[in-house]
Amino acid sequence: MIQLKNVSKSFGDKQVLNDISVVFEKGKTNIIIGQSGSGKTVLLKSIVGLFEIDGGEIIYGDIVFSRLNTIEKREIRKEIGMLFQGGALFDSSTVEENVMFPLDMFTEMSFEEKLQQANFCLNRVNLENANKLFPSELSGGMKKRVAIARAISLNPKYLFCDEPNSGLDPKTSIIIDNLIKEITEEFNITTLVNTHDMNSVMEIGDKVIFIHQGQKAWEGTKDDILHTDHDDLNDFIFASPMSQRLRKLIRQT
User: Fold this and answer.
1) 49-71, pLDDT tens digit by residue?
2) Which domains does the chain carry?
3) SS3 14
4) Which among 136, 151, 196, 148 is positioned nearest to 175, based on CA atoms?
5) Which residues pair with 242 in a beta bridge?
6) How many helices (H) and strands (E) does the chain have?
7) pTM to 2 decimal places
């Protein structure tokens, strides 16, 4: 579990996050949505500790993460897996080397132990025979699966995914969504997904947080979204004419 209490963050005179309180639940896919510039990316980076917050508390389990020093935060980060928007693989390293990178950085495992763990993670994302390939030899979906394998290599308690479906076709996006959901439940991880993709929200969103103008404007389940009367959330979800027609159909049922 990750808990935020009255979290605020400013850059100069611009307040980006304002008094956000929320609980992200263990074993569930917690999704953060919002328009570009709403503050959701800053929120995700603040939770991870890439940005120092100006006020409030960020709590991992029973540890107040926002009060820790740099060395103490490093210990918590060993329990965090990150899936970056572009995958962020090292182009000059093989798939195997990419997945082993967190193990090289944070553990004293032998090479054989690291290789065994890397193979386990690659098998989990259905990339059993990709060890010696380089990122340039992979499709977009394969790159994302390698990035997921790397993110879970340390058996994390927490998984952060920033726009995991960016640049992927709809079919591959569904595969990545399902993989994130399965891993979250299988390993009982607290997963946070930052996304614009409403298909992802409706497929895997156990809990959904809507950020609007730096504030938590709404929270609920994927089922609640379809029947909400929150104007800003409806404007975000049903922005296109096709989506507006969908909303009318939903409310007629």
Assistant:
1) 889 999 999 999 999 999 999 88
2) 1-79+204-253 (3.40.50.300)
3) strand
4) 148
5) none
6) 10, 10
7) 0.87
